[in-house]
Each structure stands twice: as structure tokens, then as C-alpha cells.
Write a structure and sequence with these properties.
Elements lengths: L18 E6 L9 E4 L8 E6 L10 H10 L37 H9 L5 E9 L4 H6 L1 E5 L2 E10 L2 E7 H5 L7 E6 L5 E7 L8
Antiparallel strand pairs: 1-3, 2-3, 4-7, 4-9, 5-6, 5-8, 6-7, 8-9
């Protein structure tokens, strides 16, 4: 943070021992919190900084929030968003109000704008249903998604029966809004470990 303040008259202080980030889905946040409507998706509710001396009433737990992110295909830093590797447009960051092509300046802006205007995005993140027994070790070693003998993507994250996968846009569009079922192949064993079903828009499970 101090690196980017330049000549601005601001101070930066670590208050992680006094406050934490909280989310509120079905109820408004406390009045004394620094919370706002999450701009990424209307179903995410409120998100903000809450001091630890404020009651935790109405705060959502981690499991609920994780499932909500998987359901709405909201990529998370360090999980689906990998520094120096993730391409912003492939991660749906424009749709999530994280990119603007009419104002501002940021590192990588030229490459991102060129990718958008030259139509070079061939893969994107999608919510998927998972039918099978997988674990963190299998995911870390790699689960590739196949349609027969043709690779269509990779599974990036999961939580019970939901996940986020990077898929070829062309393969998703072939389904014309209908669920498509692919094979999840373990990179380590080269065998099928699960079935992966693309969730069409507005058809995600609760």
C-alpha cells in the first residue's frame, strides 16, 4: 500500500488485530461498520470492514460465503485468481465490475484492452456441478475436463457438489443453454474421478 500512495498525504496502518472483513447476505450490516453493497453480484449482499468489538449477529459463516461464490462464479484471490497468471477477462472481471475501459490507469491495462478489443478471449470461468469423490490433493495435482478425448478445460476449485472451472467458450456455447456433462480426469492417475456439468446461466442450485 505504501508503494502506491505516491505523493498523497495519507498514512497506512495495519489494524488486522482490531477489525476483520465480514459479509451480510439476508440482513443489513451494523451501523458502525464500513460496509457496502458488493458490486460484483447482487446476490452477494453486503461486504465490509467490521471492528471486532461489534456484535457478529447476521454475519455469514465461511462455508455459506464459499458456496455462494462457487454458485455465482465469483473468483477469489489465491484460489481462482492467481497472481501473474490469471488473465482478467478470462476470470470474468469485466462482468464483476472490476475492470473499466473508459477511465483509470493500471498495470497491464494495455494488454487487457488489446485482449478485449481484438476478441482474443477463448476461455472463461464457469460454475459447474461435480458428481464424484474428489479432494484437495487431487485438485492440487490437477483435474482436467474432457469431452470424450478432447480437452475442454480444468477444474480450479470445489466445495461439495459445486465448483469453478476454466472452460473453452466454444464448448460451453455448443450446449445452447442446456447442461453439458464432461469427464473430470485426474492428472495423477489418468482416470475419471468425477462428472463435471456446466451450470447454464440462471440455473444454479441453491
Amino acid at each position: 500500500m505504501r508503494l502506491f500512495k505516491l505523493r498523497a498525504n495519507v498514512s497506512v496502518e495495519d489494524i488486522s488485530d482490531k477489525a476483520h472483513v465480514a459479509t451480510y447476505h439476508d440482513a443489513p450490516p451494523p451501523e458502525k461498520s464500513f460496509a457496502f453493497q458488493d458490486p460484483r453480484h447482487p446476490n452477494l449482499g453486503y461486504r465490509g470492514l467490521v471492528f471486532k468489538n461489534i456484535t457478529e449477529e447476521n454475519q455469514e459463516d465461511d462455508a455459506f460465503y464459499t458456496r455462494l461464490c462457487l454458485k455465482e462464479c465469483i473468483p477469489r484471490a489465491g484460489v481462482e485468481l492467481i497472481p501473474e497468471k490469471t488473465i482478467p477477462l478470462e476470470a470474468n472481471l469485466e462482468e464483476l465490475n472490476a475492470l473499466c475501459f473508459t477511465k483509470g490507469c493500471y498495470l497491464g491495462q494495455e494488454l487487457t484492452a488489446r485482449t478485449k478489443h481484438q476478441g482474443m478471449v477463448r476461455k472463461k470461468l464457469y460454475s459447474v456441478l461435480i458428481d464424484g469423490q474428489i479432494n484437495d490433493e487431487m485438485l492440487e495435482k490437477g483435474i482436467t475436463i474432457y469431452d470424450g478425448d478432447r480437452k475442454v478445460g480444468v477444474l480450479l476449485s470445489y466445495g461439495n457438489d459445486l465448483g469453478i472451472a476454466k472452460l473453452r467458450i466454444e464448448d460451453v456455447k455448443e450446449g445452447q443453454g442446456k447442461p453439458k456433462v464432461w469427464q473430470g480426469i485426474s492428472t495423477e492417475t489418468k482416470t475419471e474421478c468425477c462428472k463435471i456439468t456446466h451450470i447454464p446461466d440462471k440455473a444454479s442450485p441453491k
